[in-house]
Amino acid sequence: MEEKLSILEHLFGEADEPKELTAMIEADDGLRREYQAMSEVKFYLDGRAPKRPDALVLDAVVAAAASSGAGMTPRQDRPARPSGRGRRMRLAGVSGVLGVLLVILAVGLGYFRRGSQPVSAPAASRDVPIVAKAAPPAAVPPASEVVDDPAVMVSEIASVAKEAVEPSPAEARRVDRHRPTPVALQWDESAEVRELHRRIGFVEARSTSTDWGEPILTSGNTGIANGFQQVTDWDY
Amino acid sequence: MNLSDEQLVAAYLDRGDHRAFRLLVERHQERIFGYLLGMVRDRETANDLFQETFLRVIAAMQRQRASYTKQGRWLAWVMRIARNAALDHLRSRKKWQDVSGTAGEDGLSFWELLPDDAPAIDEALHRSEQSDWLDECIGQLPPEQREVLLLRQDAELTFREIGELTGCSINTALGRMRYALLNLRKIMLASNKKPLAEVANP
């Protein structure tokens, strides 16, 4: 009986070891006849036309599913995030405006300071864009003391450069005592120094641009107001 | 992309995607409706039971997956609901117990005790008539055999799934299927229809 049930599994493709069952069916006449009889019936069963429900029934089922689905609480899509590009553009715009305001403020302060306190060596600072690293660390102010005033920065850079090129007599004596050979200076070409030099040039260029000394020319009354020309006579 | 039943079920339950549910229904409509039609043998009733089955399915799935736990095949779970709907209908018509009550002392019905001495079926049958004729023959099977045959042949459940669904062992399901096929063959031969075609040997 077990074999007869096993060939049924073989017939429907559920047998674990189909090869063994095939060999067993071929070897046993009774099993082969029964397998053939069941195969014949299955052949015709496989050829039956599929049965489908009416289309209206199918639509009603799907409609019921949809209406029931509306009662569920599906996860809502989150609202779209604001565009990152727009936010970046706004930030860039704000920072740009702030930067322009800072430059204008620095130019204004520098202009008034130059008028009251003449800088001793601006030309020297302009001519010495690269600062020697041999300057003592004490000469570099701490970060908290850094000022944006261009005039002050120019004077500080000039003094640092002067100290580097012309050491004080005490330092010169100390250097001469401990180091018989001349000091080989190492030039500081770091990005910070280059940026500082670029900013100084930019600020000075902006400061001198207002030194024209010429009065601003204004146009007279041309009869044009708000882009419209006054009409005195209508030519009909 | 061919989504699995489980993926479609998740799409319907998690996102309320009723198109996923439509895909599920369309994918399995022939299996479920074929079983129901074979059981009740009336198209209108089968349509009603098909709709009732899926209304139960939707309600069960809405109850936070109370009865559908994603263990096993979704089709097997739906077939259980379809079977309950069909049996409820047949019991209300007192058609389910009528035939199965004729089983003998050893638990086998009259149909299962029929001798298998019919001649081999070896002639062809016209294909356009074959399907209806076969359905008539299947309808003459005892309900338990007919049910196993429909569950295996139309609904494409495995014998193990059929055993779990009908509350019997896999061997009992196999035995019912064996008798179903042998008896169906006898019924076909006895119907005096056109002879069946020869079938290639295994």
Structural features, described:
- The complex is a heterodimer of chains A (236) and B (202).
- Chain A is mainly alpha-helical and 236 residues long.
- Chain A has nine helices and four strands.
- In chain A, the strands form two sheets. A two-stranded antiparallel sheet of chain A has the order 1-2. Chain A has a two-stranded antiparallel sheet with strand order 3-4.
- In chain A, helix 1 packs across helix 2, helix 2 (18-27) crosses helix 3 and helix 5 packs across helix 9 (191-208).
- The relative contact order of chain A is 0.06.
- Chain B is an all-alpha fold.
- Chain B contains nine helices and no strands.
- Chain B has helices spanning 5-15, 18-40, 43-62, 74-92, 96-100, 127-139, 143-153, 159-166, 170-190.
- In chain B, helix 2 (18-40) crosses helix 4 (74-92) and helix 8 (159-166) packs across helix 9.
- Mean pLDDT of chain B is 80; it is low at 98-106, 117-125 and 197-202.
- The interface between A and B is large, with 46 and 56 residues.
Largest sheet of chain B, in brief, is: none
Biggest sheet features of chain A? 2 strands, antiparallel
Q: Which two chains form the greatest contact, residue counts included? A: A-B, 46 and 56 residues
Secondary structural class of chain B = mainly alpha
Quaternary state reads heterodimer
Helix-strand pattern of chain B: HHHHHHHHH
**Helix proportion of chain A:** 55-70%
**Counting H and I runs of at least 4 residues, what is the number of helices of chain B?**
9
